[in-house]
């Protein structure tokens, strides 16, 4: 294992909204001195794979934590992410992710279009892998102030009329989630 404390931000994004959340989370990770590793799953011409590398089999064993994000797809995660987890039995058997901190994030077009079910569903494979799932505590003032995305179950963005651009609260909450997971990873490694 390399000496850098790496936090994988594994996400898919077709049009860039989930990617903006991934970037805000990466900023939060970087604040702690840990290294954010933006990774995606195989896709063609979409925002995520136009910019970021597809996750490598070795990345899971080598990371100190993992944060997963997907657009809301009928109240669930993007199928390509589910497919990825179905190919991780080897890492599951080895316990590659056991006791490593984790969190989730999503973007949807409408406020009540299934964000929470998507966030909770994304936590399930992470718990199967033995990860320590983290959310956003209500001690974050932005969680009370937001009138769009942001949830105790994870970071989020609601497009409404705003398109892909995060508002102030969504951006702050995503950053805080990245920072929180990275700080936990650093403590666990100490
Ligand atoms: C197949 C499909 C299913 C979707 N299902 C939902 C949904 O259940 N609820 C919702 O609010 N938006 C839904 N959307 C909209 C996306 O979640 C939304 O546009 C998201 O912000 C896109 O993220 P991206 O820019 O990262 O691709 C769906 C989009 C597609 C293509």
Essential attributes:
single chain, alpha/beta, Rossmann fold, 7 strands
How is the secondary structure organized here?
Blueprint: E1 6-11, H1 17-31, E2 35-40, H2 47-51, E3 53-54, H3 59-62, E4 65-71, H4 79-85, H5 89-94, E5 101-108, H6 115-128, E6 132-133, H7 142-145, E7 155-158, H8 168-189
Parallel strand pairs: 1-2, 1-4, 2-3, 4-5, 5-6, 5-7
Helix pairs in contact: 1-8
The site of flavin mononucleotide has 20 residues, from helix 1 and strand 5.
Q: What value does the Rg take, in angstroms?
A: 15 Å
Which fold name fills CATH's third level, the topology?
Rossmann fold
Intertermini distance? 15 Å
Number of strands: 7
DSSP helical segment count: 8
DSSP strand content: 15-25%
- Average the pLDDT over all residues and give the rounded result: 96
Helix content percent band? 40-55%
Order of secondary-structure elements: EHEHEHEHHEHEHEH
CATH superfamily caption:
Flavodoxin domain
Domain count: 1
**Low-confidence blocks of residues:** none
CATH class, please? Alpha Beta
Cofactors, ions, other ligands: flavin mononucleotide
Notes on the structure:
Its cofactor is FMN. This is Transcriptional regulator. One of its GO terms (molecular function) is electron transfer activity. Residues 7-185 form the Flavodoxin-like domain. InterPro entries: Flavodoxin/NO_synth, Flavodoxin_CS, Flavoprotein-like_sf, Flavoprotein_WrbA-like, FMN_Rdtase-like_dom. This protein is an alpha/beta fold and 190 residues long. The protein has one domain: Rossmann fold (3-Layer(aba) Sandwich), CATH 3.40.50.360. The protein has eight helices and seven strands. Strands 1, 2, 3, 4, 5, 6 and 7 form a seven-stranded parallel sheet that branches. Strand 2, helix 2 (47-51) and strand 3 (53-54) form a beta-alpha-beta unit. Helix 1 (17-31) crosses helix 8 (168-189). The longest helix has 22 residues, at 168-189. The chain is globular. It starts with 5 loop residues before the first strand and ends with a helix. The mean pLDDT is 96. Flavin mononucleotide binds at residues 13-19, 71-75, 107-110, 113-114, 159, 164.
